[in-house]
TrEMBL record:
GO terms for molecular function: (R)-2-hydroxyglutarate dehydrogenase activity; FAD binding; metal ion binding. Its EC number is 1.1.99.39. Catalyzes the oxidation of D-2-hydroxyglutarate (D-2-HG) to alpha-ketoglutarate. Also catalyzes the oxidation of other D-2-hydroxyacids, such as D-malate (D-MAL) and D-lactate (D-LAC). Exhibits high activities towards D-2-HG and D-MAL but a very weak activity towards D-LAC. Its main location: mitochondrion. Residues 50-229 form the FAD-binding PCMH-type domain. Keywords: FAD, Flavoprotein, Metal-binding, Mitochondrion, Oxidoreductase, Transit peptide, Zinc. Belongs to the FAD-binding oxidoreductase/transferase type 4 family. It is found in: Mitochondrion. It is an enzyme of class 1 (oxidoreductase). This is D-2-hydroxyglutarate dehydrogenase, mitochondrial.
Amino acid sequence: MEKPPRDARYAKLEERDVQHFRSIVADPQASVVTDPDALAPLNEDWLHKYRGYSKLGLQPRTVEEVARILKYCNERKLAVVPQGGNTGLVGGSVPVHDEIILSMSKMNKVLSFDPVSGVLTCEAGCVLQTLDEYLEEKGFTMPLDLGAKGSCHIGGNVATNAGGVRFLRYGSLHGNVLGLQVVLPDGTILDSLNGLRKDNTGYDLKQLFIGSEGSLGVITAVSLLTPARPKSVNVAVLSVPSFEAVQKAFVEVKQDLGEILSAFEFWDRQSMELEMQQLPHIRDPLSSPSPFYILVETHGSNEAHDTEKLNGFLERAMGEGLVTDGTVAQDTTQFRALWQIRESFAEAGSKAGFNYKYDLSIPINKMYDLATEVRERLGDKAQTIAYGHVGDSNLHLNMVTPKYDAEVHGLIEPFVYEWTSKQGGSISAEHGLGLMKRDCLHYSKPEQAIRYMRVIKETFDPQLILNPYKVIPLQ
Ligand code: FAD
Ligand code: MLT
Ligand code: ZN
């Protein structure tokens, strides 16, 4: 795949720069990485699609170190790519060329937790799952959950405005993040870690950094609102005969389960088959193959009441022919196994070969039409699988070929983006733009909006050192 040429405005790293970085961090041995073997995984993305050739990784331990590093890079015009858990799917987290990798992995301390308000404050490099485990002991949970939870950082989640599987219940990080500490490219520390739920004192600057994908500043700490951990949890995977029935089931599930509904996900038969081909431990949870699968989860506080509600929904949906078969987890092992099916499509696709990965917001009644049309366009040139957060109108459309195939790519793009744009959808529901979709932004945003994005970028990062080649299209 082509990458944009290296921009000559950026300085090339010299030995004196490395020496300088060693002199401004407390633990140069651990914080300054130059060993090619240690750098290799930082240079390559999770999907093995994007690879840079950075000669330097920096792993600061404090916000002051981050500030000193960025101030120097800004003065020297050294380009920098902020990196969290490196699970991003759009080529945003790795260098395109020789940018310095600024990894947040050593900034992973919980700073405070208030059990009355539920406000958690932690450093940006905390792993999502570790935070959830920390909160579990206190009777709370993280307001977001996603398949990459074992590796992704909360800072990366905020930087990408990650959605995930419980968005429908707990909402967006734009609502749950109460405060951020951010280091700007010139080394200024912008601190709004106050954890206030209400604060109408002028512009809410932190919102700009949520979803900015490392292009405006480096997030070093986060305050967020965490909900009480549900006392009762149910999950069911159900067989649904058509995508129309998926939509009807969604309408009914909202009416029947109301406030306890916590996830409503779907995948198609082709996704199930690809996953079983690639991951031998995965089994179809239903007794016979289904055209569509939905996963319904509840988070509540009273087991008897929640189970009764779920059973009521199941009876009604089966009576109406919306659901033809299903399984309800009876214990934690089954609960995990059902979620594992939903959370492993990315891994299965990546094992199968080259992934053409699309993450689209499309009005729910049109969502699956795109998968059908793309499947027809590609015939047997690629495997086409569709799954996603149907409760949020978020389709994950993935095509897979054994190796990169330019003809297949040409059949998919710009078709998928044009189609989505015509429906008034978004070419990135939750994964972001990164390098992959930088030049496709116009399918979702008017020219005026892109112009103001440029103004904001130049205001925060006038030397354009942060995450170059990504997010903002070239003029
Ligand atoms: P990285 O991949 O390291 O970085 C992502 C972007 O954020 C880059 O542009 C990087 O420069 C920037 N960045 C990272 N940390 C910082 C920081 N501290 N300050 C400033 N910028 C920073 N995404 C979803 O939204 N929903 C899902 O359901 C979902 N499921 C996934 C499942 C799997 C199996 C995988 C592999 C990925 C999934 N993703 C999902 C995508 C990805 O995990 C998320 O985008 C995640 O939020 C990225 O976090 P990270 O720490 O890995 O960030
Ligand atoms: C998911 O919902 O599974 C993730 O966003 C990853 C993917 O799109 O494959
Ligand atoms: Zn997703």
